[in-house]
Write a structure and sequence with these properties.
three-stranded antiparallel β-sheet, six-stranded mixed β-sheet, 10 helices, alpha/beta
Length: about 350
């Protein structure tokens, strides 16, 4: 495995048997090998997924419910095995896939810290040295000495997240686990994630929040119906995700095929974490800024058209003219830093 790669996914597929009736499981077990396929149909959760995550990269995974995101993370963690293909992971993994996964409900919070910490590869001495930090971050007070079966879902995620991030993982995997925490705790979690990223940890992040993905991630992929249909800069991928979920139902299939075809044609600039369209947009902005060095105020540059903009199908409402104006009412698209404008 390449030393600068944290995760390499190659031709990864995962399928599950689906039974029409419960007793078909038994009939399958009792049938000869040549007849077993008669009692179930295969559901393909993932189909030929390929991507690579660099060390120190924050990598987003977006997609509609049922698109295969959680299955992909479980395969990366090793809690599921692929039907075809391979996953190579370099380094220690800490994962938040389900709230309290790995906790014993009859154990106290303290006992579960030691249990979960040992599962994540820490020695007892290492857990001893980090316990106070874990308990302080979780901030559940005296409940740390109570059985976790008495915890609320928020207390579960506080303790689980606190253990995971204090392992100092090479690879941190977060699957929407922070959604149940209150706003103050979420801010603390995102701050800690950013600290881990700045310290060189690789992060895989699944979220439906466009703001979180574009703010935290260097790159992202879009999954739909078990297929990887887009990858590149987070802004570009999230825009395609929104285009997919907000399109009329009768046009989704065509849109998926267009995105898949575009993915094959695009040259993804892995080392720069941007798509070609994002790069053109950046050059347009830089050019406008160079031309504005003699300008003392914002102005409108004719012909400045973004290359990475996406058009959405009409679903009853059309936004016909979104633009920015200076406070005196002038339409502008080259702005001055520190000034106030109206959108």
């Amino acid at each position: 495995m390449c030393s600068d790669s944290a995760v390499i996914v190659t031709d990864l597929s995962k399928s599950f048997p689906v039974y029409e009736k419960p007793h078909h499981r038994l009939l399958q077990m009792l049938s000869p090998a040549s007849q077993k396929h008669k009692w179930f149909r295969e559901f393909h959760a993932l189909k030929n997924i390929n991507f690579e995550v660099k060390r120190g990269e924050t990598f987003g995974i977006v997609g509609r419910n049922g698109s295969g995101k959680s299955t992909l993370l479980q395969l990366i963690c090793g809690t599921l095995f692929p039907s075809h293909g391979a996953v190579h992971v370099n380094g220690r993994i800490a994962a938040l896939l389900e709230l309290g996964a790995g906790f014993n409900p009859d154990f106290t919070g303290r006992e579960n810290v030691y249990l979960n910490g040992s599962v994540l590869g820490l020695s007892r001495e290492e857990i001893d040295s980090r316990f106070d930090t874990i308990a302080e971050f979780a901030d559940i007070g005296e409940f740390i000495e109570q059985p976790v079966k008495s915890y609320s879902s928020g207390m579960y995620v506080r303790l689980a997240f606190s253990v995971a991030i204090n392992v100092q993982p090479d690879l941190l995997i977060v699957d929407e686990a922070l959604a149940v925490g209150d706003e103050a705790f979420q801010r603390k979690c995102f701050s800690r994630i950013q600290n881990l990223r700045d310290g060189g940890s690789t992060i895989l992040f699944v979220s439906h929040s466009a703001g979180i993905v574009t703010e935290l991630c260097d790159r992202a992929i879009l999954l739909d119906q078990g297929e990887l249909i887009a990858q590149g800069g987070p802004k570009s991928v999230v825009s395609k995700y929104h285009k997919l979920i907000y399109s009329p139902a009768d046009s989704v299939a065509k849109l998926r095929e267009e995105m898949k075809a575009q993915k094959e044609e695009e040259a993804i600039l892995v080392d720069e974490f941007v798509t070609e369209a994002d790069k053109v947009d950046t050059e347009l902005v830089a050019s406008a800024l160079r031309d504005s060095t003699l300008q003392e105020e914002a102005y409108y540059e004719e012909g400045m058209v973004p290359q990475s903009a996406l058009s959405y199908s009409s679903n009853g409402v059309v936004i016909s003219d979104a633009h920015i104006e200076a406070l005196d009412g002038r339409r502008v698209n080259v702005l001055r830093e520190g000034e106030v404008y109206n959108f």
